[in-house]
Design brief:
Number of helices: 0
Structural class: mainly beta
Order of helices and strands: EEEEEEEEEEE
Mean pLDDT: 95
Strand content: over 45%
Largest sheet: 7 strands, mixed
Distance between the termini: 40 Å
Length: about 120
Amino acid sequence: QVQLVESGGGLVQAGDSLRLSCAPSGRTFTLYAMGWFRQAPGKEREYVAAIDQSGSITYYADSVKGRFTISRVNAKNTVFLQMSSLKPEDTALYSCAASTVVSREVGQYDYWGQGTQVTVSS
């Protein structure tokens, strides 16, 4: 069992930056690829970024490519999502998730956090 806790969300203005953190519990962090997803009110959950177990391979949704960076520090059991040049359309509940394979598919992820709210005002 892996429990995930996100932090770092908040209310920012368009163009600002924000860094989200996700801290999984347990000693098996390095077994899992990690992903960030987001869900805006009335919309389906959307893939944002993913990173493999070593941190050497990353993937991004086209909507955030060049603005967001996913990274992980295995020694600290933490995965990050650095968000820059934020736009109002980035407003959503951001959740991290763990999977045994790096994927952009929601169904591939076995464990999910409760999420942290990001609100970007124009």
